[in-house]
Amino acid sequence: MHQRINHCMIWCVRTTLTLDDDVVALLEQERRKRKARLRDIVNEALREGLSRARRPADRRRREFRTKTVSLGRCLAGSLDDVAEVLAVPEGDRFR
Question: Distance (Å, rounded) from C-alpha 65 to C-alpha 81?
Fold first, then answer.
């Protein structure tokens, strides 16, 4: 179906989508909150998602750094022997 408005062509397409349960719940929650039609909510969400997907990735937002801290010396001695390391906090009960 199409209509001509102001020399522009507008196409309406009906399609069937299989949505995950969590997506259906979010859409229904948004529909109730805004008292809007489901198709309006879905179209808006798709526009926003597709618009974000087209934007170049912002590398500064993706970079994550963890601050380092000194934990002091290792109280377990050598970490090469796992049984020995586990025996430190457990005592004789471990063996």
Answer: 31
